[in-house]
């Protein structure tokens, strides 16, 4: 088995090939991004690896390297994703102290793939890809709205000498109330116009985000009925989970998914006693989704409330909620596996008869 580590960039990709024992094979290969990259990389690796199977390891989530990963998968190659943290750890272990270059990063990516056989495999699911694009768009719109909201709150406080609460612009109705406040204030014409323009932009961002959520609902409801059946899982959080997890079968167990999400506590053995510490790594978007689901369940459901209450004495409130998140990973994992099985059956039924 030959492992190729790829450090992806906007304009070019750096590739390095390693043998099974971690030694370098031949010279590193740099290719420009674009349709020609696939042919150049395949010709390069055939000359190095002959008939050996090849594993392509690309750094990061599906971002700058997505187009290349899709092309490699379409060419019958096996592709895995290497988390940046894993790459950085192997760069510190195997590279010169303090040194950093594209070649060093590519070698670290390949070594991380050699060290971990359970890395996420790249899969092409057109429906999940659509969900991912919409989730990213909604997040961008939300980030813009939050940044603009903070500026407007500050401006209203300065110009009107009126302090608004943090939630004063969290809904379209509240934006309308603040607009009425600005219109009725004795402000200079240009100051009033500038504030009203920003409030109108906030309203527009709300409308655009609502349209994205409507489209997400159309996509997610057929894809994840079991996931949506969990209390506290709405369309947005279901979409986030689908977009981030992708192919749930890449996790052999829910415990592995919990470790990937950062929801599994890390055992501490050097203390001489049985204890665990918080895992501050993992996928933060999935971790946040699990936390929000847990908060809703505690607020609305007696089983979750009792779960937290029974553990607060020994773990504290934060520890009890962390335990609830770990339990929720099991529930979410089972639901996503069930949904994926149903989707697989539906795809088989849709295949034309031969």
UniProtKB/TrEMBL annotation:
Please give one Gene Ontology molecular function term for this protein.
DNA binding
Taxonomic source organism: Nocardiopsis metallicus
Domain of life, per lineage: Bacteria
According to its UniProt entry, the protein's GO biological process terms are: DNA transposition
Q: Which residues form the Transposase IS110-like N-terminal domain?
A: 4-155
Q: What is this protein called?
A: Transposase
The record's annotation in InterPro entries points to: Transp_IS110-like_N, Transpos_IS110, Transposase_20
Q: Name one Pfam family in it.
A: Transposase_20
The portions of this protein that span the membrane are none
Q: Tell me where in this chain the Transposase IS116/IS110/IS902 C-terminal domain is found.
A: 226-308
């Amino acid at each position: 088995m030959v492992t190729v580590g790829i450090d992806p960039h906007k304009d070019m990709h750096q590739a390095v090939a390693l043998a099974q024992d971690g030694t370098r094979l031949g010279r590193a290969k740099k290719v420009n991004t674009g349709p020609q990259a696939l042919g150049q990389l395949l010709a390069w690796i055939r000359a190095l690896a002959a008939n050996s199977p090849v594993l392509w390891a690309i750094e990061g989530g599906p971002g700058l390297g997505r187009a290349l990963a899709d092309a490699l998968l379409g060419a019958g190659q096996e592709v895995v994703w290497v988390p940046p943290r894993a790459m950085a750890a192997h760069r510190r272990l195997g590279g010169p102290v303090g040194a950093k270059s594209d070649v060093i990063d590519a070698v670290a990516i390949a070594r991380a793939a050699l060290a971990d056989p359970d890395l996420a495999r790249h899969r092409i699911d057109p429906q999940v890809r659509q969900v991912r694009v919409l989730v990213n768009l909604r997040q961008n719109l939300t980030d813009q709205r939050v940044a603009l909201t903070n500026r407007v709150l500050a401006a209203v406080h300065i110009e009107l000498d009126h302090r608004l609460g943090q939630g004063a612009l969290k809904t379209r109705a509240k934006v309308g109330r603040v607009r009425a406040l600005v219109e009725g204030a004795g402000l200079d014409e240009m100051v009033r116009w500038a504030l009203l323009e920003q409030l109108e932009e906030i309203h527009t961002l709300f409308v655009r985000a609502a349209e994205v959520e409507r489209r997400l609902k159309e996509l997610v409801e057929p894809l994840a009925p079991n996931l949506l059946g969990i209390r506290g899982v709405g369309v947005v959080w279901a979409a986030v989970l689908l977009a981030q997890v992708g192919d749930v079968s890449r996790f052999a167990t829910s415990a592995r998914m919990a470790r990937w999400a950062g929801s599994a506590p890390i055992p501490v053995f050097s203390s001489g006693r049985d204890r665990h510490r918080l895992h501050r790594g993992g996928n933060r978007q999935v971790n946040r989704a699990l936390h929000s689901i847990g908060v809703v369940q505690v607020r609305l459901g007696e089983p979750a409330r009792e779960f937290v209450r029974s553990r607060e004495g020994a773990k504290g409130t934060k520890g009890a909620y962390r335990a609830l998140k770990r339990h929720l990973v099991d529930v979410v994992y089972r639901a996503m596996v069930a949904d994926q099985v149903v989707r697989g059956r539906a795809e088989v039924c849709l295949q034309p008869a031969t």
